[in-house]
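Researcher: We're teaching a course module on how sequence relates to structure. For the next exercise, students receive a sequence and then see the predicted structure as C-alpha cells, so they can try to spot secondary structure elements on their own. Here is the exercise chain.
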Amino acid sequence: MDNRKLINEAKSSALAGKMLDRESIIALLSIDPETEDGELLGQAAREVASVVCKDRAYLWAAIGLDYRACPMDCGFCSLGESWGFVQDEVEYSEEEIMTRVKKFVDDRVRWIVLRTTQFYDLNKLIALGRKIKSTVAGDYELGVNVGEFDEEIAHRMVEAGFEFVYHSVRLREGTDTKFDPDERKATMNAVKNSPLKLVSLVEPIGVEHNGQEIADTFLTAMKYNAVVTGGMERVPVKGTPLGDFPAISEKRLAQIVAVTRLAAGFHAPDICVHRGSELAMKWGANVTVVETGAIPRDSCCSSQKEWNGFDASKATEWFQRQGYQVCIRDED
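Model: And here is the predicted structure for the students to work with:
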C-alpha cells in the first residue's frame, strides 16, 4: 500500500476509536523517518494527539531508590553485577526520597514513580509509599517500577496509595536479559486484575530491533490494558554487552512514538517518549520523563540532580513550544 494512504488510514482508524493491526503497525514502522513520508506520519500522529489528549501534556518523574549491583545482568543496564560499574552501593533515605517527591510535586509532575532494582524489599516499598502519600500533599499520582509481584501485592500497593505500575516485556526479553517473559507477563496480568493502572513502553529500543519486534512489544502492552505507552530508547553504556551498538536516531525514536500514537488511538490516550525529545513531542508524544537517583542508563551514576540536565522546566518549555499545555490531571 502507498505510504500516504497507509498513514491516512491509520489516522482515521485512531480517530474512530480502533486499534491498528500488527501488519499496519509494521508497515508504518518501515517508513523511512528521514523522508517526506516520515514527516507526514509525524504530522498525522500530532493531529491525533490533539483530539485524543486534547493537547494536554504530562510530566513523569522517576526516582531511582537504590544504586545497587543487580545479578540479573540485563545486557543494556549499567547496574548489572557482572559489568562492574557499581562499586559503592547507595540506598536513599526516607528523608531524601521525601525531598525529591516534594520537589517534583512543586514542579507540577503528574506521575511520580519509585524505581528499584529487581529484588528490593516490596514490604519496605509499600510502607514507604504509604508514608509518602500521608506526608506529601499535592495532586500527583504515585507509582512503582519494581520486580515481579502477584495480585496480593498489587492490592496491597493500592491500599498504600499507589495508583500505577510501570512494567513491560522488554525487547528481546529472555535473550538480552535473564528474565522469563512469561513471568513479566504474569506481573502485568496482576496489575490488570487490580485497580492499578499499567504504564508500559516499547523499550529499550536500539538499532538491533526490527519492526516486528517493536510491534509485538507494543501489542503486548496493549493486551494488558496499558493506559500509557510509547517508546524508550536504549542508551548505549560502554562496558555492557550492548554498549557498542549505537543508539537509534532521534527521528527513528520520534517515528516509533508516532506509530504508537496512531496504533493505540483512544485505547492508550497518553504517549510517552524517553529520553526527552522535542521532535517526538511534535510527532505526538504528550508525556516525557525526568529522572534522578540511581540511573540504569549511565555508568557513573547515582544522580543528585535530574539526569542529563533534563528537568521539568525544560520538558515544559518543549511541550509548550509544540502546542501542548502541561497539566497535572486530565481535568486541568
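Model: If you want an answer key for the exercise: The chain has a mean pLDDT of 96. The first helix runs from residue 3 to 15.
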